[in-house]
Structures are given as C-alpha cells and as structure tokens.
C-alpha cells in the first residue's frame, strides 16, 4: 500500500503561560501579568503528514476553545484531513481513550483509504507532533499571558499557521524522533 504517514496528537494551551527566561534592561525585572486562576484552555488536535518520498511535510490542525478533544471531534478532524489528502493514509497515534473509542473503530472499519496503528504505550518521544507542541509552547508562545480565551485562540492559530509554513522546522520534528534518520 502506497500511503502517506500521518502522526496525530492533541494538546492544550492554557491561559497561564509557560514561563521562560527572558531579557530585560538592567535593573528592570520583567513582570508577567496574567489573569487569576483561570483553567480555561484552547485544545488543539494536529496531524503531521509525511508522504512516502518525504519531500513535503505538512501540518494540519483544529482548535477548540474551552473544550476537550472527544472521539467525535477526532473523527471530524480525520474526515476533513481525508478530504485534504486524497491518498491512502496510515494514521499513527498514541493509545488515548479517544483514539480507541468505538466511534473510531467504526470509522476505520468503514474507511478504505485510512488505516491506523499505535505507538507503544507511553512513548511520546516517538511522536513528532509532541515536538511541535513543545516548540510552540516553549518558543513563540512562551511568556505569553493571554487576557482572555479569544486572544489565546488567536495567538495559537497565528503561531500554528506560521509553523505550517516552516517546512524545515517540521522536518526537524521528524528527525528528532528515532523513527526517522536524517538524510546525508
């Protein structure tokens, strides 16, 4: 089967920022202002796509402000993804409950172009999408204290779209895992 490989993972961006070291003028301690104990978040599901020849790596994502990722949302995401990519797909993901739900089993049983496989139990270092989450949270979104959920959604969408255009960076997420060897 000549299929592209799709790595899928979910994550959340919280209103409370990931605090990183930063620069400031001498004698001026940077102050990071944020709202109180807000547990609001933006849930994100993303797919990193790799064709067989590995020439073009793609990133697809969906945002869900103040919501959790459910099996229904995963199925909807997969349907949209299969419309975007008209070739057979091998979906590789972790063993979360949403991925093993009855709804997902029925979806894959009916699908002729989409197949799935799982990472070994608890192996986030194998999933290149985890590298993308780490990059987004620790680089462009670091120290970003959103005043409300709309601002957080807008910033997350903006930075994910910018990441989508950085093919070299997306490819580096693949090579950061032991699944892929760097071409010489």
How many separate helices? Answer: 5
The best one-word shape is: globular
Q: What is the CATH class?
A: Alpha Beta
Q: What average pLDDT do the residues reach?
A: 87
Instruction: Give the second-level CATH assignment, the architecture.
Output: 2-Layer Sandwich
The spatial strand order of the largest sheet comes to: 3-2-1-4-5
What is the domain total for the residues? Answer: 1
Biggest sheet overview: 5 strands, mixed
CATH fold title: Nucleotidyltransferase, domain 5
What is the oligomeric state here?
single chain
Low-confidence sequence ranges: none
One letter per element, helices H and strands E, the order comes to EEEHEHEHHH
Q: How many strand segments? A: 5
Beginning-to-end CA distance, first to last residue? 27 Å
Q: Can you identify the CATH superfamily?
A: Ribonuclease H-like superfamily/Ribonuclease H
Question: Can you walk me through this structure?
Answer:
Helices cover about 35% and strands about 20% of the residues. By secondary structure, the chain is of the alpha/beta class. The chain has one domain (about 5-10, about 40-175): Nucleotidyltransferase, domain 5 (2-Layer Sandwich). The protein has a five-stranded mixed β-sheet with strand order 3-2-1-4-5, sandwiched between helices. It is globular, with a radius of gyration of 18 Å. The model has no long low-confidence stretch (mean pLDDT about 85).
